[in-house]
Design brief:
mainly alpha, Growth Hormone, Chain: A, 2 domains
């Protein structure tokens, strides 16, 4: 796990720098109307890898000689090259084509990483702990990388992209140290895999995860545009991102403790209840501060829910092809994220109305889990 953690940390640094550079080009440095149009286009681009390309990612990974280890290496190197190509295209429409490629590569890595984890632990009980450690590393390194990336962004967005490319390149080198036994071979879809993936536990936790990801997407764009409408400085936006990273770290830190005290379903219920209560409170109180607190808590609880979801799938579907399974789920999750993100961009709700909506949706989600607790 240490070697995978090293790779994941470098990937997280590269992602943080990449996100800061791209957010400035797509959103922060242009007028609100232009930003809304660009964000809508970006959401459409981010949807494409999942709706069109995602079904093919898993099978392609399985056929690559050397399996996951070589896949992670190739993806990291290609991401580095893609980011370098973006340096001279920040104001060009070709930026979206390169963003499409980068998103496909990012999802390929995510699927590979999730499929690798079960091969590096001794038993199912260690899955939540292993996933939480990777999430904790991701949050910590992403937060740490955001500081130098933000400073570079003040100089030139291209410098931030160079930093991102270097991090991805280093991740590629580190991936060569991953154990060789994580290589995979193509497996046909078997009846037992279909049965496991359609089990009641898997379907319910997957539906809950879709809703949680959708809420995160909605809240991200709602808060972003609401801050612009309120004429808040970009420092508030940066604070929201920074606190969200810290909250993700906390979520990953407490997840193993929660798992020792409760089931994965109860963890998901806890996540929904926490977001729901704070969402209702934020809707009543209103204001920038409580809005930033809500988006931070939502991201943290998203980590708790994600770890519960991954643990259930990895345990309840031991015979499934992990790459194939998680591509399918990530496709649905991204559809939810983009779909509710589009709703936030198009509807332009008042801050308090959006917060209350998030709270009510999550209260309903917790009610669904509570009412089905017996099955």
């Amino acid at each position: 796990m240490r070697r995978l953690g090293r790779v994941h940390s470098l990937i997280a640094c590269g992602e943080a720098a990449f996100a800061i550079a791209l957010a400035d080009s797509l959103f922060l440095s242009i007028s609100p109307d232009a930003a809304r149009s660009r964000v809508l286009l970006f959401l459409a681009v981010s949807l494409a890898p999942f709706a069109i390309v995602a079904p093919f990612i898993g099978p392609v990974i399985d056929k690559i000689p050397g399996g996951r280890r070589i896949t992670v290496f190739i993806v990291a190197v290609l991401r580095s090259v893609t980011v370098i190509l973006m340096v001279s295209r920040l104001n060009s429409i070709s930026l979206f084509a390169l963003a499409f490629v980068s998103l496909v590569l990012a999802r390929t890595y995510s699927v590979s990483k999730t499929a690798i984890v079960p091969t590096l632990v001794n038993n199912d009980e260690e899955l939540v702990s292993a996933n939480s450690k990777l999430g904790l590393l991701s949050g910590a390194m992403g937060f740490a990388a955001a500081v130098p990336a933000g400073l570079l962004q003040l100089i030139d967005a291209r410098a931030t992209l160079v930093m991102s490319a270097v991090m991805f390149g280093l991740a590629g080198l580190a991936s060569l140290q991953l154990p060789r036994h994580i290589a995979t071979s193509p497996l046909p879809v078997e009846e037992i895999e279909i049965e496991e993936m359609r089990s009641l536990q898997v379907r319910r936790i997957a539906a809950s995860m879709m809703l949680l990801r959708g809420v995160i997407g909605f809240l991200f764009f709602h808060v972003a545009f609401w801050l612009r409408d309120e004429s808040a400085s970009t420092a508030w936006f940066g604070l929201a991102l920074g606190l969200s990273s810290l909250s993700i770290m906390v979520g990953n830190l407490i997840a193993p403790f929660l798992r020792r005290q409760m089931s994965e379903r109860a963890m998901m219920l806890f996540a929904f209840l926490t977001i729901g209560i704070i969402g209702i409170y934020a809707g009543v109180v209103g204001g920038i501060t409580v809005g930033i607190i809500l988006i931070s808590v939502t991201n943290g609880m998203g980590s708790v829910g994600r770890l519960a979801f991954e643990s259930v799938v990895q345990r309840e579907a031991p015979d499934a092809n992990r790459a194939r399974a998680f591509v399918r789920f990530e496709t649905l999750n991204q559809l939810a994220w983009v779909g509710l993100g589009l709703a936030a961009v198009i509807l332009t709700l008042e801050g308090a109305v959006g917060f209350s909506t998030v709270g009510l949706v999550c209260i309903c989600g917790s009610g669904y889990l509570f009412l089905n607790r017996a099955n």
